[in-house]
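Our platform keeps sequence and structure together, in a single record for each protein. Because each token names a local backbone shape, the row as a whole describes the fold. One such record is reproduced below, unchanged from the form in which we store it:
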Amino acid sequence: MPSSDPVFSTPLTSLFEINHPIMLARMNVAAGPKLAATVTNSGGIGVIGGVLKTPKVLQRSIDELKS
């Protein structure tokens, strides 16, 4: 649960237990794991792209996101 009280509540903020309904669009090359991690760590929902990635490359992106 977020540490501060939300300013407003929406189904999205309630479902994901976030304060800010900010979701990073999957932008493949333009937005990688570092940006997704920054958005997530700031209280939004970070997303990484996986289309056309091999399982090995996708796993590297996931590992980078988690680090």
